[in-house]
């Protein structure tokens, strides 16, 4: 059985000064995670890094797990808000144009703080063990589904939920692997074009691409 999910906050800040303290604590959490790793991180170290007492930290966050959860929520909420805003002007664009813009946006988010992206990605299994649902991914899937739904008649997959699952996870995996293994690709427009071609080819394959293969098989059968 998964552990009971740790709450990310003990209480929410209500004044600007309190919000500044919370922001400083979360910024310190990110720095400590990057420098020391999750196992070595502690609330004492994070409080010291933030320049606050550990008592002040505990006013807002109940534990190290709560700090990491809050940092993940903050980071992903910002990314999701930017992604959602970026989808709006793409609604009427041709699918290949829109797909390239979407992939550029995903890569731009990855480039903002690549080390933090990697650390948070590695912590996702822990969050699942804590029993936390990935609300970010659920919302992301809903946004992509809403974007593709008006185009359904032009798409090959009939099961849109399955298509969104395949598309989102494929693009995310390629972008994340490029970030960790081939960072030179993250800045390369050709990489964007290749992922876009992969995505569009899955969603809306051109009939012309299938005909040469059939003709080749027929010639091979006659030989």
What does this molecule look like?
With 223 residues, the protein is mostly helical. It has a domain at 76-222: Tetracycline Repressor, domain 2. It has eleven helices and no strands. α1 crosses α2 (43-50), α4 (64-87) runs antiparallel to α5 and α5 crosses α10. The radius of gyration is 22 Å and the shape is elongated.
Query: How many helix segments?
Result: 11
CATH class of the domain at 76-222: Mainly Alpha
Q: Helix/strand-derived class?
A: mainly alpha
* Portion in beta strands: under 5%
List the helices and strands in order: HHHHHHHHHHH
CATH homologous superfamily classification of the domain at 76-222:
Tetracycline Repressor, domain 2
List the helices and strands and how they pair.
Layout lengths: L15 H21 L6 H8 L3 H7 L3 H24 L7 H18 L1 H16 L5 H14 L11 H22 L1 H4 L2 H15 L3 H16 L1
Helix pairs in contact: 1-2, 1-4, 4-5, 4-7, 5-8, 5-10, 7-8, 8-10
